[in-house]
Amino acid sequence: MPPMHIDPQTGTVGLPNGYSVDPSLTQDGFRASALFSQARSQDHGTWPWIHYHFSGGHLEGKELLVSLCFYDQVLVYLSMTADLYPPGPKDWSTYSLAVEAAIKDFHDRLLEQTLGKPSRSDQLPYGELPAAQATLAHPHIWELPWGTVHSAYDSKGGDTSIIVKYGNRHDEANKAFRARRGGS
After folding, report:
1. Are 138 and 152 in contact (CB under 8 A)?
2. Mind listing the pLDDT tens digit for each residue in 77-130?
3. What is the pLDDT of residues 144-153, one digit of tens each?
4. Contact in structure between 126 and 133 (CB atoms under 8 Å)
């Protein structure tokens, strides 16, 4: 099995550090795991949404940064980003579209190795990008029996990631959150 693997039949994600994220993982299950002690939690002030950030190990010498997003006990999605930036501070002073494009290409290659060609590739209206960065305007989506996998660049957040979404959990969690807050 490759160092990072997404099972196309089940949605289980195998990370290079040996940890496996099963779609049925609960927040309590993650908190009981050995990996939890290495994770940093972040709730963005929107409890019961919570994110856990940790290193998923290394791929081709690059760290794989992982974030698990739960709504209460339900794993809604996970995101992964290969860190291709040089060592040092990670802030807007070192930000580079060229590096983000390299990350996107790296992600696309990994996903094609494990999932094959994407189900579809969209075209985003990012205007004129240099040829070496054109990949940023083309998110790839794999539609699978259990959910979707996206390889995309977020122009608002400025990051490039692989996002694994399970079924309609994200929509259901948003609906539950709005109801909890008294919205529609």
Report:
1. no
2. 999 999 999 988 888 889 999 999 999 999 999 999 999 999 998 877 666 677
3. 999 999 999 9
4. no
Total structural domains in the chain?
A: 1
Residue by residue, DSSP assigns 141-180 as EEEETTEEEEEEEETTTTEEEEEEEETTHHHHHHHHHHHH
Sheet-wide strand order for 5-6: 5-6, 13-14, 20-21
For position 18, what pLDDT does the model report?
93
How many angstroms separate the CA atoms of 81 and 160, rounded? 7
Please tell me the distance from the alpha carbon of residue 167 to that of residue 165, in angstroms, as a whole number.
6
Tokens (6 digits) for 49: 């949404």
Residue 107 lies in domain = 5-180
